[in-house]
Amino acid sequence: MPRKPHGLALTPPMVWNNWNTYRCDITKATVHQQADAMVSSGMKAAGYRYVVVDDCWQGHRDAAGNIEADPVRFPSGIKALAEYVHAQGLKFGIYSDAGDKTCDNKPGSRGHEFQDAQQYAAWGVDYLKYDWCNSESLEVRAAYSTMSDALRATGRPILYSICEWGTPATTAEVGQFYSFTPTVVASAGSSLTYAVANKPAWAQFSVATGTLSGTPSTGSAATGINNRNEIVGIGDPPGEEDSGFLLLPE
Hints:
Strand order of the largest sheet: 1-2-5-6-7-8
Structural class: alpha/beta
Largest sheet: 6 strands, parallel
Shape: globular
């Protein structure tokens, strides 16, 4: 059944995610640099709020099953990383997967959903992107509902980004938003945000034509924008054009 709203993602969250540019080549230093750049470049002032570390931050699970950060990439751990991002006035996000392994074969959350969610909350995580690799034998709605319940049980408001590659209707009621392909990307290649498919009040934006449809949220920055480059300088990868959703400041 649909989860009770808790005030997250009332407008589309505006996010920097490392995957499209860095893939697994992500480190503490890179995240610090990106958080600093979001402030100095004006992205924070424009409405960007989340710095999200995608796959490959994980190391191993300890003897008790607790997930640990890669000690080489993140020697100070995830809690310290989140604290640095928070000190810049931004929010911090992380990645996991519903399967036993992530898309890059790091430890997934299957069987550890509540344990991982509690760990994320203890670290100060504000956002979870939850993927669907290595999910054989899992039922999609049940798997995403389990992590939704786990996040809510922490008592910390953690925005839940669903990435299950299928139809948004199967999981939209358990998360705040649903990512789609192709991802909207910056001219430099970094993923700036994940778009959404479960917020009908948000205005739809065609990245192919630069046109709007629907009604933007009240007070949004969308009024008068009719050129895709006026939003965030976005562009589709060659040969990939699709409809996304307009990116509005929170």
